[in-house]
Target: peptidylprolyl isomerase
Amino acid sequence: MAAVDISPCKDEGVLKEIIKEGVGDETPPPGSTVTVHYTGTFSDGTKFGSSKDHNVPFEFELKKGRVIKAWDIGVATMKKGEVALLTCAPAYAYGENGSPPKVPPNATLKFEIEMIDWKGEDLSPNQDGSIERYQIVQGKSYTTPNDGALVNVHLTGSYNGQVFEDRDVQFTLGDGEEYGVIKGVEVALGSFNRLEKSKLKIKSKYAFKDVGNTEFGIPPNATVEYIVELKSFEKAKEIMFLKNKEQLEQVKICKEKGTNYFKANKYSLAIKLYKKAASHLKYGRNIDEDLKAEADNLLVATHLNLALCYLKTNQYVEAKDSCNEVLKLNAQNEKALFRRGQAYLGLASPEIAIKDFQEVLKVEPKNTAAAKQIIACNNLIKKQLAKEKKLYANMFDKFAQEDKQKEEEKLREQPDVMCGALGEWGQEDRPGGRDATAFEKENPNILMLNANGTGEFQNM
Model:
């Protein structure tokens, strides 16, 4: 097949000749990780590099500037299984500087490239492939929604080729759960440009987890796909660019929204909003002195609410940490001490928890809840001691039994002098070589010491 100019400006900077046709119609979208084999030569045919020499395919992220321009342009046009020859002018390769020591300045290069496969752009927080993006339509700008941005999107969700939802939805980024938007879509939207349309492949940890969705007919641990179009968005104001009073107003808004979610038993959303409020207070600009007391009070209230949410969801370590943040500001905070005590109880540490409840009574002697918790702690401690005592008793009994068995095994290993020497008397073993008496025959383990067998013992 004749070479075709595929350079954007049609300046013959990248010429493509297909050596072997690929399969299907799909080509790798921007951001995907492609896997190829290549052989690079100069115009005279001299080879300067090849992945085939070591039989190790080359991987790179497409359209991310990880390779020369010609590769980003040419590889993006290739189908799976396709083999093509790219002729790359210097401006689309290594330019006037070259790539010493192998590639000289202003060199025209040829690359025979085999497209092996590609996978979507990994948008998952831990880069574990849980959220993959395949762009269908690139966005119109380089700005992306931030946390708290108001987004207007169209979602089409499918499982095993069957569409289970197809709708427009507008929501604040971070509150998607309230609108039935799965976490994987929310995470991905943080990387979308305006008017972008992409396919997302989302594994269960960011979709419907190990529960599934009976309404949609999705089983537990299922991977789903979404076509997501970001129609528009309005970025939220960054806290660092707000004045002190505006910062505190944003914190109050987050805290109030968190409280509303808490009252509706939507603890995961409440936690998200409370954490956001606490983060604004901690990482925002320095608060003016006249507003510091108000900011500290907000931080205390936010962490107390966080601790309560964590207790409700059995996240006891996180609850303890939130209480510690409060106690840094107010070491005698009654609620923080009480909730930290509850967290220690949840962590099966009543001997530590009881100290916090005792501190609560020092702050407020009439706190009957703390008094009851102290009784509960003492009961738990007694139960633990009884359990440990029984455990140790059983342990000692076991050790004693093992020692006894070892002793018996040692005794069994020793020679039995009664059976081996005295219990099997032959005639030659008896004094004088005499025959056994009737008594000796009835009692083979007893040796008559005298020679005449009268049954009398001598020299005793």
Notes: Confidence is low (pLDDT under 50) at residues 420-426. The CA atoms of residues 332 and 377 lie 21 Å apart. The two ends are 121 Å apart (CA to CA). Residues 368-413 form the longest helix (46 residues).
